[in-house]
Amino acid sequence: MFRNYLKTAFRNLLRNKAYAAINVSGLAVGMAACILLFIVVRYELSYDKFQPNYSNIYRVVTQDKYSDGIDYTPGTPFPVLDAMRVDMPQLTTGALFASYGSQVTVLGKDASNNSQKKFIEPSGIFFADPQFFSVFHFNWLSGTPALLAEPNNTVLTKKMAEKYFGNWQSAIGQFIKLDNAVTLKVAGILEDVPANSDFPLGVVTSYVTIKSTKVYNYTTDWGNTTSNEQLYVLLPKNVSADNINKQLIQFGEKHYEKDRNSKRIHFLQPLSELHFDNRFGNFGDHVTSKSSLWTLSLIGVFIIVMACINFINLATAQAVNRSKEIGIRKVLGSNRLNLFWQMMGETAIIVFTALILAGVLAEICLPFIKHIDSINEPLSIFTIQTILFFIGIAIVVTIFAGSYPSLIVSGFSPMLALKNKITSASIGGISIRRGLVVTQFAISQVLIIGTIVAISQMNFVRKADLGFNKNAVFVLNSNSDSIVFSRQTALKQALLNTPGVQSVSFSSDIPSSDNNWGTNFAFNHKPDEKFTLYLKMGDEDYFKTYGLQFVAGHGYKHSDTLKDVVINETLVKKLGLKNPNDAVGKEIKLGGGKWKTIVGVVKDFKTNSLREETKPTLIGTRQKFYGTTSVKIRSSNLAQTKDAILKIWDKYNPEYAANSYFMDESVNNFYKQENQLSLLYKIFAGIAIFISCLGLYGLVSFMAVQRTKEVGIRKVLGASAANIVYLFSKEFTLLIIVAFVIAAPLAWYMMNNWLQNFAYRIQMSVGVFVLAILASIIIALITVGYKSLRAAMANPVKSLRTE
After folding, report:
1. How far apart are CA 467 and CA 462, in angstroms?
2. Is residue 790 scored above 70 in pLDDT?
3. pLDDT of 321 over the 60 cut
4. Co-location of 20 and 72 in the same domain
5. In terms of DSSP H, where are the helices of 381-475?
6. Contact 93, 132 (CB under 8 A)
């Protein structure tokens, strides 16, 4: 019997090639999209789960509560490490300090300084104590964590050792130099850290080394907090995080001054949240919000549901052609259960064929997945989890797509079937089929609206007035040490003499960055203000190089130390001053320093990304922090001028590798994930439209065959081609409008929530929704119009002769 059903199923599919092709295509594309999204979501959720103590590892984070809001910092003051080990000895506490933009110079066995092998490590170099490796587990190829108890010892991962020394075995006992200041001995080798980790360890130096050198600004000041200094704890199994959080509140009350301008506490953040909490960030290259993963999962469900709807609609419509076959089978003794499983078998064949094609499509598209997610390692669809997902999705789709049509077909009355009295209107319920079409187009329109909003927001971001000129500014980062400082004057003059260079500035960082260097401060000889002031240090040409505009006063003169200062409009407003001119001439004090005169107020510029409000900011001179060289270039010959700048840099700083980029690239990197999401919406809106059009084309094709005589009669009675096209398209247009009524509020809710991630954002106007429904109607009319026009142009004589 099974063999007979299988033969019949293949025969029916071969007889109805167009029907089979549409179903297989729709299901294959839908399942391939679903598989790729599953791979992305599973990968993002897998971060650091290889750690044996994953569920018991926590990061100690900092919360500062001010009168006007709360600030979160992933780091702690340096003294917290030793104090916690005294106050909470039951915890295993490890420290990890990161230094970004650091240079590694390979010295070799004799530790000579004439090496030309210099590297800037973009993911940072790290300092860790032995206890860090009691909290986290990493495999050691050579050495033990005890090596990191000694100053000037470092360990490399296998990948880094091979990069610096050719092979990791020969790296042991050789020397490297950090930032041209600290000579280190390679004492151990770590196995490479998996890519799905927020701890991209490459160079790990002993933590005591930062205490013995002034390069990394180690301080015992409890008021100095940096996000680069992070503490991790391993909780014993019988100790709860809530209990430790209560102890940390008491810890803060004990160690922090009560007259601070904020209420500071520390609390534990689970390792499971590190990759997903935008408040704190991590040492990895990105943070993924769980809402984004839910969105991806939901899109995957949407796509596969649409493919199943196509199958259901086409299968129930196609059932009319098989009414006589079903009638004969019932007369010859087949019961409803036999016929149900026959239909389910045919569905399974289609799904299995589609699954093979989906696997091929997914494998072809897998290398391009990095464009929609920050995944840089090679992925495979042939993993246990993915194969299980393949099987699961095939079963679910077979049941979901096949059950309803199989129930309908197996329930035909043999008398009506044999008399050919079964019609498309009498099976499956027209209202159900309409409901499925509405669902399908509602999903498409949600994705279309999402695409329009995402594109509009990213266009807004690209064209937004940042308050400074980011174009054609070439930036070089380096150490901020005495050697660099001694050459800055000569370097600046050489750069200014270069054709194409308009201005040069030295500073702590560029105007818009991830930097959140803040301090307490006082204004106009009053007590400390109850909010944080954010700092940027730059020379007298900082304003000219970046095109910052003054609304009051002027810039300051050259100085190597902090003297006169400039503030932004946001600070003026937060100080309660009505006019920027009221701030000029007043004095301000940073921390416990001396009073400095405000000489100017600049127009607000975006200090961070557009996701954040502009911060109250002060700009002043302090050569000690000038690690950034910014060169404004005429845009007429960027490439040639850039090469000339790099040659001059190598001439004046031969010991330092050039870590360079154009500023507009840096600003664009702020929105990498948003651009990926925008691209994702485009791709999956296109897939949704493709699947919708496939289903619509199939339904209209079937309707055209079923209504051949009706079309012929209407043409004989004088109907025009336009009338016939209208006959086929009017119902679908109405269904699209109904779908829009459902989709619009859902899309508004989803995209409004997404826009809340931006402090500066577009408003979703009526035009967005009008454009979405017009696009849906036009796409549907094109799909319907082609087939209906062919039906309308057919010879009515031939139409009336068909049986």
Report:
1. 13
2. no
3. no
4. no
5. 384-410, 414-418, 430-463
6. no
Residue 441: the pLDDT is 82
How does pLDDT run across 551-585, given as a tens digit for each residue?
999 999 998 888 899 999 999 999 999 899 999 99
Q: Is residue 3 part of a domain?
A: yes
State the CB neighbour count (10 A cutoff) for residue 64: 19
Number of compact structural domains in the chain: 3
Clarify whether residues 64 and 39 are in a common domain: no
Residue with tokens 């020379």: 539
170 lies in a domain?
A: yes
Is residue 364, in this structure, part of any structural domain at all? Answer: yes
Inter-residue contact 691 to 780 (CB < 8 Å): no
Q: E strands of 496-586, at which residues? A: 501-507, 518-519, 521-523, 533-537, 550-553, 565-568
Q: Are 333 and 420 contained in the same domain?
A: yes
Share of the chain above pLDDT 90, in %: 28
DSSP secondary structure letters along 160-197: HHHHHHSSSGGGTT-EEEETTTEEEEEEEEEPPPPSS-
Whether residue 255 sits in one domain with residue 153: yes
Determine the Cα–Cα distance for residues 240 and 305; give it in Å rounded to an integer.
42
Domain end, chosen from 657, 678, 699, is at: 657
Is 9 within the bounds of a domain?
Answer: yes
Same domain, 62 and 200: yes
| Neighbouring C-beta atoms of residue 506, cutoff 10 Å | 26
Q: Is the pLDDT of residue 101 over 50?
A: yes
Instruction: Output the pLDDT for position 123.
Output: 82
Q: Over range 239-251, report the average pLDDT.
A: 92
Which residue, 547, 672, 542, is CA-closest to 611? 672
Whether residue 150 is found in the same domain as residue 231 = yes
Average pLDDT over residues 513-541: 87
pLDDT tens digits, one per residue of 261-291: 778 899 999 999 999 988 888 888 788 888 8
- Mean pLDDT of the 191-202 span: 92
Q: 273, 305, 332 — which closes off a domain?
A: 273
Q: What is the mean pLDDT of residues 790-794?
A: 63
Q: Which domain holds residue 532?
A: 479-657
Q: What percentage of the chain carries pLDDT values higher than 70?
A: 83
Given the DSSP bridges, would you call strands 533-537 and 69-73 parallel, antiparallel or unpaired? unpaired
Residue indicated by tokens 């490399």: 156
Per the DSSP assignment, residues forming a β-bridge with 104 are 119, 178
**Other C-beta atoms within 10 Å of 67: how many?**
10
Do 38 and 300 meet the contact criterion of CB atoms below 8 Å apart?
Answer: yes
The answer to whether the CB of 511 falls within 8 A of the CB of 536 is: yes
60 and 2 fall within a common domain: no
At 478 the three-state DSSP class reads coil
Structure tokens at 569: 């409009």
Exposed/middle/buried for 16, CB within 10 Å: 0-12, 13-18, 19+?
middle
Q: CA-to-CA distance for 600 and 586, rounded, in angstroms?
A: 10
Statement to judge: residues 41 and 59 lie in one domain = no
Cα 215–Cα 218–Cα 220 angle in degrees, nearest 5: 155
